[in-house]
Design brief:
alpha/beta; TIM Barrel; Rossmann fold; 8-stranded parallel β-sheet; about 35% helix
Length: about 475
């Protein structure tokens, strides 16, 4: 089931929120703490035909209730008399609110400051508090933080368990909860109506992550990153797997400690990861390079498990080569040409290694000269101080990283460096175009479309994952999101 959290502040508008939620939800959570004035819960329960779970959270538990604890307890007791399907009670007050009628008790434990390592004691206390369902809520900024919650949901227990992750991995937890049989997963009706920060919306669960298709037999492909590339990868691949009737879906992942990542992936039966090229952290330490280019650069965007362990590959620059060859009409487009790679980190290193293999004459520059020197040293290229880049003639401009900003301010790259006839490869806002795009076209340069590079890369990755071609209709549908 999907439980939509409704957080109205107005008693007048609450009926509309409930009605809208009832069209999408199997269960509705009515958050009483969000009301400015206490509503008549009995009247609200009569407005829709979907079961309602009533909650009233304290500020320390992430809620908005401003009254005294005595007032909150009285409100919860009166709420049970009204006869909702469920009432959420904090573990520490469960013995102060007796069971009444047919209302089931969701006994909740919340820790907003940190995750807990062992929660077996909490389940024991919830059982003693006469829980029908146990709910655990805590921060899940990465996979490490979410792991105890995931372990709780995946284990067979006497009481059903619902978890709510707060933060970047909350969506990850919700989708895994669906796979492993959680009674329901939480969603907001729309942006701005979240019960917690980063709570997924029902639209996101339905349209992007196809939550209704996820079950015990679903296999996940992990998608690592927090940007536009991650979102588009998810939409396209989920649309493709759905069209092909394959029990495979995408799972957003924010890795924590890489030393534990392989074991976690094994437990979740995930054997492939796709990585946003702008993802800030390096995953190369969890895998062995599949080819020389990956070995030299340390840059991976596709990680797959095989018989000999996890292998890391790069598909981005194969896509860059394909699209630039099409734009220039020759696969010799880099040979002997003066090329400056702007940026630092593994993406810039990978770009320089790739262009070096294409026989380009490589220089490296970065807003931080120290970072630029380190990058140039790794690839054996000449370093250009940031203050000297405008005095250097370059034929090919490679913008390799989100640290490179278009502008005339301190640390920004003035677009006057782009000249007529230049070739510009822009990866600063991948897969979107940046402010450099208009500047390049206005100045008569060849601008290689990031969207076209992304399309080519995604086709390569899909072929690598499935040994099949990416369906054109699924690709088009995924881009419409």
């Amino acid at each position: 089931m999907i439980c939509i959290s409704v957080t109205p502040s107005s008693r007048t508008l609450a009926p509309a929120d409930l009605l809208n939620a009832s069209r999408k939800a199997d269960l509705i959570e009515l958050c009483l703490d969000s009301f400015i004035k206490t509503p008549d819960v009995g009247d609200l329960l009569k407005l829709c035909d979907k079961p309602i779970l009533v909650s009233c959270r304290r500020k320390k538990d992430g809620g908005q209730f401003k009254g005294t604890e005595e007032e909150r307890l009285a409100l919860l007791r009166n709420t049970i008399v009204a006869g909702p399907a469920y009432v959420e009670l904090d573990l520490d007050i469960a013995d102060k609110v007796p069971r009444f009628g047919n209302t089931k008790r969701v006994i909740s434990f919340t820790s907003l400051n940190r995750p807990l390592g062992n929660i077996d004691d909490i389940f024991e206390q919830c059982w003693k508090a006469k829980a029908d369902v146990v709910k655990v809520t805590w921060p899940t900024e990465d996979l490490d933080a979410a792991w105890p919650l995931l372990a709780a949901v995946t284990q067979s227990r006497e009481l059903p368990v619902v978890g709510q992750g707060i933060g970047s991995s909350g969506l990850t937890f919700s989708l895994l909860g669906r796979k492993y049989g959680s009674p329901w997963i939480y969603a907001a009706l729309e942006r701005g109506m979240e019960a917690y920060e980063s709570q997924p919306t029902v639209w996101q669960l339905e349209e992007e992550y196809c939550w209704e298709d996820i079950g015990k037999k679903t296999r996940f492909i992990g998608v690592v990153g927090r940007g536009a590339a991650e979102n588009t990868i998810v939409r396209v691949l989920n649309a493709a797997f759905k069209e092909m009737d394959k029990p495979i879906r995408c799972l957003p992942l924010v890795p924590g400690n890489l030393a534990r990542l392989q074991k976690m992936l094994g437990v979740m039966k995930i054997n492939a990861l796709l990585v946003d090229p702008l993802y800030a952290n390096d995953l190369s330490s969890m895998c062995t390079p599949a080819d020389d280019r990956t070995q030299l650069s340390g840059f991976v965007d596709t990680v797959m498990e095989g018989k000999s362990g996890w292998k890391g590959r790069s598909t981005l620059f194969d896509a860059v080569d394909s699209e630039t060859t099409a734009a220039k009409g020759s696969d010799k487009w880099a040979g002997g040409r003066a090329t400056t790679v702007f940026g630092s980190g593994t993406l810039a290193v990978a770009a320089a290694q790739f262009l070096s293999a294409k026989n380009a004459a490589i220089s490296v520059a970065a807003p931080s000269d120290n970072a630029g020197i380190a990058t140039a040293k790794k690839v054996g290229a000449r370093h250009i101080p940031w203050s000297a880049v405008y005095a250097t003639t370059t034929d090919i401009i490679v913008l390799a990283g989100s640290d490179v900003k278009c502008g005339v301010g301190r640390g920004q790259l003035n677009p006057s460096i782009i000249r007529e006839g230049s070739l510009v490869i822009d990866l600063t806002a991948y897969p979107a175009e940046s402010a450099f795009a208009e500047e390049a076209r206005t100045r008569g340069a060849t601008y290689v479309s990031p969207a076209q590079i992304f399309a080519q890369q995604l086709h390569l990755q899909f072929k690598m994952l499935t040994n099949m071609e990416l369906p054109a209709a699924a690709f088009a549908k995924g881009l419409q999101g």
